């Protein structure tokens, strides 16, 4: 018992000694930090007192701080303005997927020279097809719809010539991008295409991106035809519960930019569901055109067009370039009938492993018989 009590007493003494050592160490650290803080604030106090008592030093300090702040702010703003200017000149908005406008100075000249070189190398000794001046030879439409499109392209061209405000358009049904592109080409306008499905993921940046597109459109010297495919993706009715805040903001930004008639751009909307568009959108539309599914005559013309372009065109194989030419694939058309019987029409049989033409044929109605082997 005496030995156990001695051990307990020894442990208490050891614990008290360790506590006193720890307290002294902490007190020493505190005194050291307090001394450092006092010294630091003493130097700061001495410097401020010397600065406030000396007028010249005060003026130099205030002037230097002001110059530093002005330099940082000016550098940031100049860099922002310079980058915006370079982006407006060289870049195109991220929402634009396809455009005929030059992306950088001189690119249009290079593109024209390249096209002339390719045309001279691939179409040497051949005559251009009749009707190439129309610009609609590659677009197959019903005759009445084609006349309306040609009239609309002519009217747009005259509007540009007389510097009158352009008319906005709405294509609905299964609309085609080719028609908008050909209208722009016939009218002498630049062409750009964006998709409504790219707008919603932008979130809070969508308003800035919409304004960037219309500011960029003013750079075109010819005027710009802006084609918005799947317009119902962000131009739907604002009363809908499924419309997000970003879509509402994009719609309001677009309505603000097209509120007045413009002499710089033509807006063309395309949708399969025109009834879903907001009423404010339809109020700003001047021309509404329906594109129905192609009939039997139009399908035959489409088949002949692609058949002549991709299968029978001898110059199609040399379009890869002046130095890199692909060997043409030998295709032997055996029969192509243009007769239109009531129940059945034999189209063609080609000796080719391609199944592309078969898919084109199978997309037609049940009266079409085809064979590819």
TrEMBL record:
Q: Does the keyword Nucleotide-binding apply?
A: yes
A molecular function (GO) term:
zinc ion binding
Keyword ATP-binding among record annotations: yes
The UniProt record lists the AAA+ ATPase domain at 165-295
As given in the record, the signal peptide range reads none
- Pfam families linked: AAA (PF00004), ATAD3_N (PF12037)
Looking at the UniProt record for this protein, which Gene Ontology cellular component terms does it annotate, in alphabetical order? mitochondrion
Q: Which GO terms describe its biological process?
A: mitochondrion organization
Q: Which UniProt keywords apply?
A: ATP-binding, Nucleotide-binding
Name under which the protein is recorded: AAA+ ATPase domain-containing protein
